[in-house]
Structures are given as structure tokens and as C-alpha cells.
């Protein structure tokens, strides 16, 4: 008899992480179903339905929808009778674990996708994190930094926590056709520009984009044909970033709200920059892995998973937090030192292949589900 696992996921439009999980999980032993808490239909829902998975889409826009979402989750769980509920993201965890506890599901798992965010910005929400910790029978953490927060700040017992790195279908970042790349290059008017500096970060203060834009302004003084590519370009810090962008000519930057073809997007970059403002801002930080898997030499601050494997001048250039000058100097160093760029590309690709192949994550999840 198959082990039935219901995933509860909140506020996601498209996420290849969940697509890969659904595709690669052992279907002879494990039967997956999904509760998606979204404001309307999503790309993830389309993918899952197309591939034959049982999906319950629940309309969820804000906290006022929580009681009805909880009711729908309870009804779905009572109907499908899963052996395990595995919840993801904040609302998904709060609703999924509560529904699973109410329905007496014995294995209640959640993956902690945020790090110190509530401790730093919304201390009133810590009580909900503690509730999720209490309701779960196992907590998956993607990095050591998240494990430390759970143990030291939220006093979760070590035996309740399991470290499983996010996994990636790494060939997806290398097997990108020239047609796809050319299409995006034309779409975003990038043909006449060099160097192209890539950023994939929402406009949130802790992502550090406010330090990248002034650094790019300095790059422009030496490379007037440079272009700044800002993807996932929205969020609560938008007014700050847009004010900074006013100091850059319109033709030298492009803002991208959402690009479905992430793999081709990374191939457009000559240098990638990701600079969160401290070591705990990111719980994981998928772009650290995605940029290196795409063979893009990168400038990073150490946050999330970068604390675990990024080494300065080995697989990336590491700069200080909140330091525009250091970002500028790092980007300039990669542009002008081709030998260094080649070293970063080769070592970065080798390191992510060794650590983050998706088969490792899938095996760890299957072992957890079937134990």
C-alpha cells in the first residue's frame, strides 16, 4: 500500500522546486496530493493538474481568508486520508499543520522556509512560528542557520529537526537552447549591452538591492554600455529602489516582474549579484545555487545556504554586508579578470553539483516519509 502524502503550499505561483518533487518522488511507494492556498489559479496548479495529481485550490488572499481555508484543508484531508501532511511556507504551515492536527494525522511535517524574518521584523508573529513548531512532529530545515534559530531562539528539540538541503535538477540550468536565450535577449533589449549585471531579488530591504543600484551607477562611469537586469522587481521596498533607479539612464536597466524561463534568464547575465544584509536574512537563498549552476560568476554576501558552502575567490566573490563600494569592486574585478571569472565558474559549478543534486533531496524525503 502506498504512503499518502498531502502537501500544503501557500502563496506560490510557479516553483520548479515543487514541480521537480512531484515529478521525481517514487510513485510506486508514495502518492502525492496538494492543497494550494493561492489568490486564483497558479502555474504550479496547472502543472500538477496536467500531470495527473490530485489538487485542491483554495482561494487565499490574506488573513481574513484563513478560517475558510482551514475548513477546506480539513475537508480535503478527511476525504483523502493522508498518512502524512507536509506543509510549506508560513500560511501553508499554519493552516496545514492545524488541519492535520485536527484530523489526527500522525505525521505532521513542515519545511521552515523563513529564517530570522519574524524575529527581526515581526516579533508578534513568533508565536505562530512556535505554534507550527508545536503542531509538527518533524521540522525540515534547509540550512544550518535555520537550525540554529530553531534551537537557540525558539527552543525546538534537536531530535525534532532534520537538515535537508533544497535540491535542484541541475541539468535544467545547462541544457538551455540558444533559441531560448536569443528570445529573451531580444525580449529585454539586451543585444547591444555589456556587461549585463543580473539580480533576482524582490524589492525587500533585507535583500540589499538598495546597495546594488548605486554600485551599478559607478560601473556605468567605466562601462557606459552596461545594463542592470532586475528580476522579481516588485515588493514593499519598491519606492526606494525606483528612486535610486532615477539616477540611471532608462536604457541601462530593465525591471522584470516575472520571467517564467528562469533557466534562460540566468544565461543572459555576465555577472550575478546577490547581497542580503546579514547572515540570517535568507533561510536558503535558491539564487546562490541557481547562478552557480548556470555558470555565472557571482558577487555574494553570506546569508542562508551561502554560509554553508561559499568560499571567497574559490566559487564566488564575497563582499561585506551593506557595502556599495565592495559590490562595485567585486563586479569590476570579475569583469576585468577573466582568469578569476573562469575559476569562479568552474569551482562554483562543481560545488553545486556535489552538494545540491535533486536526487539527494528526493532520497532524504522518501526516507523520511517511509520511515
Explain the overall architecture:
There is one protein chain. This protein is α/β, with parallel strands linked by helices and 371 residues long. It has 2 domains: 179 residues, 3-Layer(aba) Sandwich (Rossmann fold), CATH 3.40.50; 185 residues, Glycogen Phosphorylase B (Rossmann fold), CATH 3.40.50.2000. It has 17 helices and 13 strands. It has a 7-stranded parallel sheet, with helices on both faces. The protein has a 6-stranded parallel sheet with strand order 10-9-8-11-12-13, sandwiched between helices. It is globular and about 65 Å long. The model has no long low-confidence stretch (mean pLDDT 97).
What is this structure's SSE topology?
Layout (H helix, E strand, L loop, with lengths): L2 E8 L5 H9 L5 E9 L4 H8 L3 E6 L6 H15 L3 E5 L1 H13 L4 E5 L5 H5 L4 H10 L2 E4 L2 H9 L8 E3 L7 H4 L3 H10 L8 E5 L8 H14 L4 E5 L6 H8 L7 E4 L5 H5 L4 E4 L11 H8 L4 E3 L5 H4 L7 E2 L5 H13 L1 H18 L2 H13 L1
Parallel strand pairs: 1-2, 1-4, 2-3, 4-5, 5-6, 6-7, 8-9, 8-11, 9-10, 11-12, 12-13
Helix pairs in contact: 3-4, 4-6, 10-11, 10-15
Amino acid at each position: 500500500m502506498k504512503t499518502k502524502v498531502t502537501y500544503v503550499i501557500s502563496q506560490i505561483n510557479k516553483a520548479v522546486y515543487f514541480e521537480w518533487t512531484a515529478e521525481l518522488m517514487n510513485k510506486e511507494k508514495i502518492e502525492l496530493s496538494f492543497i494550494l492556498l493561492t489568490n486564483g489559479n497558479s502555474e504550479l496548479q496547472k502543472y500538477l493538474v496536467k500531470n495527473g495529481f490530485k489538487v485542491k485550490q483554495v482561494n487565499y488572499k490574506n488573513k481574513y481568508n484563513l478560517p475558510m481555508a482551514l475548513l477546506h484543508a480539513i475537508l480535503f484531508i478527511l476525504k483523502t486520508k493522508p498518512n502524512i501532511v507536509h506543509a510549506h511556507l508560513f500560511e501553508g504551515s499554519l493552516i496545514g499543520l492545524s488541519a492535520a492536527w485536527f484530523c489526527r494525522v500522525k505525521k505532521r511535517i513542515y519545511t521552515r522556509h523563513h529564517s530570522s524574518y519574524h524575529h527581526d521584523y515581526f516579533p508578534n508573529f513568533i508565536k505562530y512560528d512556535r505554534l507550527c513548531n508545536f503542531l509538527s512532529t518533524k521540522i525540515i530545515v534547509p540550512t544550518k542557520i535555520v537550525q540554529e534559530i530553531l534551537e537557540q531562539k525558539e527552543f525546538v528539540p534537536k531530535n525534532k529537526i532534520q537538515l535537508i538541503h533544497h535540491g535542484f535538477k541541475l541539468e535544467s540550468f545547462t541544457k538551455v537552447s540558444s533559441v531560448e536565450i536569443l528570445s529573451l535577449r531580444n525580449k529585454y533589449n539586451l543585444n547591444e549591452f555589456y556587461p549585463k549585471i543580473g539580480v533576482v531579488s524582490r524589492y525587500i530591504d533585507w535583500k540589499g538591492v538598495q546597495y546594488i543600484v548605486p554600485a551599478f551607477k559607478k560601473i556605468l562611469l567605466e562601462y557606459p554600455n552596461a545594463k542592470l537586469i532586475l528580476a522579481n522587481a516588485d515588493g514593499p521596498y519598491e519606492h526606494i529602489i525606483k528612486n535610486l533607479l532615477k539616477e540611471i539612464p532608462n536604457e541601462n536597466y530593465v525591471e522584470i516582474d516575472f520571467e517564467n524561463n528562469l533557466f534562460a534568464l540566468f544565461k543572459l547575465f555576465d555577472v550575478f549579484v546577490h547581497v542580503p544584509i546579514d547572515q540570517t536574512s535568507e533561510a536558503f537563498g535558491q539564487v546562490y545555487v541557481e547562478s552557480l549552476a548556470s555558470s555565472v560568476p557571482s558577487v555574494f554576501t553570506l546569508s542562508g545556504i551561502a554560509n554553508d558552502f561559499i568560499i571567497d575567490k574559490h566559487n564566488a566573490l564575497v563582499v561585506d554586508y551593506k557595502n556599495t563600494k565592495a559590490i562595485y569592486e567585486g563586479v569590476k574585478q570579475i569583469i576585468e579578470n577573466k582568469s578569476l571569472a573562469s575559476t569562479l565558474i568552474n569551482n562554483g559549478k562543481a560545488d553545486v553539483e556535489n552538494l545540491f543534486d535533486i536526487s539527494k533531496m528526493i532520497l532524504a524525503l522518501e526516507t523520511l516519509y517511509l520511515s
